[in-house]
Design a protein that fits this description.
Length: 372
């Protein structure tokens, strides 16, 4: 009986090791050290740092290293021998600075050092001429050095949740960027030539202190996602009307009071998110045919425009916490799948809507507050 149990445990362990070996992915240092030459990816949570760094030079074919929840006070010199490494993720590793040994990883394409205490971005990262993704989320970075303009291989830059107050003009030289995330900083102005980033497809600037967007951004014809909610915009930024390929526009939690009729020019816009603004009405001729979701929660809108029926693909309509008293006729909202309204003060016509649309999910979000 004991022999059978032992054999079962052995084959289970061997099977797990064999499966990891076949895929080259290891989540156990002990298992990886059995055949270090076959390890292509190490994904370790709370690893034994001393044991890992003592054996790091054995992983000659390692391409992807992810370390999470570990206290790193230094980096081993041997990491420079990982010449095949392409991805290095250090998540919640308590790093106070980016180790200089990283400059030796000349094949590195993705570098993420998140939720540490990093205050400076070192210019030696320019040695990584294949680096495409740089993510420094949740650190203490206040300034971005001008040398960032030399990192022309970058395609994705993520500085979310840092106390950055200003972007250097040199960032406009990163013309290969297609994704830029600056959410949760203290940026109050973008560089004048920010529009030189013509290949940007995704731009996330929520939770900053912006009050306008530079006119040069009209060159960003490839922009598909623009998120600028929770800033200080008092009017709809007119440059947005140039983004003909825009699919997602998040402009909520800004004290804007009007949406221009010209928004209909954004023929590909599928998600228009305008919660918690000062808007009192939508354009009467609103007819965004590609629109799938309209969120106008927490405004002062009293009625919905009748031409909303020309938003043929509208699936989600959120207008709770508005003084709207009357629903649109049934023919105008026949495709709605999710309807968010005030159930306590139901608008006129809601019972008729429920009868004609029994499959539509109708609800009022619980615990939602319009307090900004």
């Amino acid at each position: 009986m004991l022999k059978t149990a032992f054999l079962l445990l052995f084959f289970r362990a061997f099977g797990s090791h064999l499966e990891a070996q076949q895929h080259g992915v290891y989540r156990s240092l002990a298992s990886a050290l059995v055949t270090p030459d076959s390890v292509y990816k190490l994904d370790l949570i709370e690893p034994d740092v001393e044991a890992l760094f003592g054996a790091i030079d054995q992983f000659s074919n390692l391409r992807n290293l992810k370390l999470s929840n570990v206290d790193l006070t230094s980096f081993p010199e041997g990491i420079g021998q990982l010449t095949q490494l392409e991805v290095l993720y250090l998540y919640d590793c308590k790093l106070q600075k980016i180790p200089e040994e990283i400059r030796l990883l000349t094949n590195l394409k993705r570098l993420a050092v998140s939720f540490g205490g990093i205050k400076e971005i070192p210019c030696f990262l320019s040695d990584l001429n294949q680096l495409e993704v740089l993510s420094l989320v949740g650190n203490q970075i206040k300034d971005i050095p001008a040398c960032i303009g030399n990192w022309t291989s970058l395609k994705v830059l993520n500085f979310r949740d840092n106390p950055i107050t200003k972007l250097p003009d040199a960032i406009c030289k990163l013309t290969g960027l297609n994704r830029l995330v600056l959410r949760g900083n203290k940026i109050h102005q973008l560089p004048e030539h920010f529009g030189d980033l013509r290949n940007l497809e995704i731009l996330k600037l929520q939770h900053n202190e912006l009050s306008e967007l530079p006119a040069s951004m009209k060159q960003m014809s490839n922009l598909r996602v623009l998120e600028v909610g929770t800033n200080n915009f008092t009017r709809f930024p007119p440059v947005i009307l140039n983004f003909k390929n825009l699919i997602v526009l998040q402009l909520g939690v800004n004290p804007i009071d009007e949406i221009p009729s010209a928004i209909n020019q954004l023929s590909k816009l599928a998600y228009l998110l305008l919660p918690m603004t000062n808007i009192t009405k939508l354009p009467e001729d609103l007819h965004l045919s590609a629109l799938q979701e309209l969120n106008i929660t927490c405004n002062q809108i009293t009625e919905l425009p009748e031409k909303l029926n020309r938003c043929f693909n509208l699936k989600v309509l959120r207008f709770s916490l508005n003084p709207i008293r009357k629903m649109l006729p049934m023919k105008f909202i026949k495709g709605i799948e999710i309807l968010e309204i005030d159930l306590d003060t139901q608008p006129e016509g809601i019972d008729q809507f429920k009868a004609f649309h029994p499959d539509t999910k109708i609800y009022q979000p619980k615990g939602y507050s319009c307090q900004k």
